[in-house]
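I am still learning, so can you show me any protein sequence you like together with the matching structure tokens, please?
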Amino acid sequence: MKSIFKNSEHHISTILYDLCKTILVFLIATTFALCLQEAEVMNDNIFGVYMLAVAITSSVTNGYAWGIIGSVCGVFGVNYFFTFPYFALNFTLSGYPITFAILLLLSILTSALTAKVKKAALLSSIGQRRAQSLNDMSQSLLSANSLDEILEITLENLYLVNQCSIVVYMGAPTAPDKKVAKYVSEKDELILDSMLEKQVAQQAYDTGNTTGQRTEDATQNCLGTYIPFSKQNKIYGVMGLLFSKNTYIESATLGFCNVMATQTILALDRQELVEQSQKILLEKEKEKMRSNLLRAISHDLRTPLTCILGSTATLRDNHQKLENDTRIRLLNDIYHDAEWLIQMVENLLSVTKISGEGTQLKKQEEVVEEVVAESVSKIQKRFPTAEIRVRVPDELLLLPMDAMLIEQVLINLMENAIRHSDSQKPIYLTVKHLWHHVYFSVLDQGVGIEEERLPYIFDGTTSGKSSDSSRGLGIGLPICKSIITAHGGTIYAKNNENGGANFTFVLPEEGVESYEQ
């Protein structure tokens, strides 16, 4: 009801404004004509001044009515001010009715043509603006990388072109998957969010046809117009428009909005294809990782199992013949190989945790120093003779992570350094806090990594070394990469200038995107 009153007030104010402009134009025209008569200039063509006034009135007011009113006023003005007897109306002069009828018809035609030219110019301007907006919208949609961007671009362009309140629903309007809106006023927001408007929007979604104001499916008391995003038998959502003025433009606007909706549909289809392509690429990457892991597992399992089998067979068949030191050495070999198999099983469990369908990491704020201390404690229990030197910042670092998985990464990197560096020198585990990222580095002072292996060190391949020497690198490093990637971080390896290898992974702080090295 408030909306109706407000629209009525707006309509009345427009009429009064146009009336004032009409009166002002004819006052100026009459004053000018009287001055010309007093100066005895254009005495026989005074009506031309009023025709000019009619043309000006038609150009500065809305519609045809004010020009026609001006035409009638001009006829009466000529009769009253410039026809004998002056300052009196007299339509009884010989030939006067026909002359003034012709003049009235000419002024009405002038008014109509002026209004028509004005409307044509306005529509041409609107057409140019729409064409430019459609081109800008198409260019913007081509660079959109997400559904949210597509909806925001659609909303902004609809608003700029139509200058009316806009709401865009993805999915059913009564229970949308996504909703974006831009309102001219709070009143429009209340209208478009009302249950009646949502039901009309739902009707557009269910039928695939435009509903609401200025459509064949107009609903009583409905103020909005709703256009579905539909393609063949598929409906993506609905966009709603709430107009307030320029009714002769609104009918043409619906057709243009359908064109803009088509552009949005094409962008949604493209985004869907991109997402499907990304899923296919992700599946290919997962399959590649599985293949590499299978190759690594087949390699890493064979060596310890062969050693265990050989050692146990020797103890069983030659128990009485073996010296005590030899038996202890064989038992130690069995123990270490079994321990290594347990570590491999833990790695495999980590893989299943981060690569299962629908699985998400349970990250929470952890104290970095505690995670580092726990991983060092575990590795020193397994390698009591190894010297690990730890360097962490003095500040208290809290980082979102799955602590158990990050410990697994640190243990894998330190174990590789102990087993494969071929050096008894200390291993350094350092932590640095730079630019909202935390850097974890494991450095050894050993033989380093062959340059040809560096680009593929995290792929699970085992080339360039013997089975024994490369045992463990195959499966451990791909798992480290999977865990760090799942945390939104990056991991890389390089050789130190003074010898040895350096494995570093970077984790972002809360709300910070990581980056590629």
